[in-house]
């Protein structure tokens, strides 16, 4: 799948350990994952299995203990060396800045004023917020705030967009709407996207492949391709089959019978 596309991100035998109160805690163990340019990849797994830590290592906010992370042929050793955008569960907007000003905050300082305005206008159109340029965060819904956050992450034209539970704080209907929004943005922006989520249906709806993590220390239990065409029917036989497959991977680490819960 996507074999004709260039390799965008290579996670090569990556492990992560933290030293906590004099004791070494193993968070991630021997993660190997190749992501092609333009792929949409989701990572699912239990809380504490290292999903968000992996994103922080990809963007250079955390150091790798073992192994290496390579982006476009270069090894990541700090956040200054990678061209990556990141959106978090909370929108993290500056309340005293307007929508346009919050988006502008993501533009590198060397970009000229005229170019900055063009970039802001492009991103506002991309995330569907035309007419809200001068609005403040407290005048926006949760979903609209997240769109601003995503626009700010994209405005520097990153090669890769990391999404760390970006819809986790939204209500169910807004979350479904935002899933459609991010899929539309992905199609238009043609960026490589890596999503961390606890929502299995969300992962199936959005992804080319789903990476299933084990409990801590996080290891890759399975990588599941999702080959059905978009937009995807959440009630289709294929969708349900993939959901059952992922649940069985989760329940494999417990004494519970997955058939009872699926």
Précis, in short:
With 262 residues, the protein is an alpha/beta fold. The chain contains 8 helices and 10 strands.
Can you tag this structure with a few keywords?
262 residues; alpha/beta; Rossmann fold; four-stranded antiparallel β-sheet; 32% helix
- The class by helix and strand makeup works out as alpha/beta
CATH architecture classification name of the largest domain: 3-Layer(aba) Sandwich
Spans of at least 5 consecutive residues with low confidence: none
Q: Please give the radius of gyration in angstroms.
A: 19 Å
Helical fraction: 25-40%
First and last CA, distance: 28 Å
Total helices: the number is: 8
- Work out the count of structural domains: 2
SSE arrangement, N to C: EEEHEEEHHHEHEHEEHH
Oligomer: single chain
Strand order of the largest sheet: 6-7-8-3-9-10
Q: Under the CATH scheme, which class of the largest domain?
A: Alpha Beta
Mean pLDDT: 89
Instruction: Tell me the overall shape.
Output: globular
CATH superfamily of the largest domain: P-loop containing nucleotide triphosphate hydrolases
Proportion of residues in extended strands: 25-35%
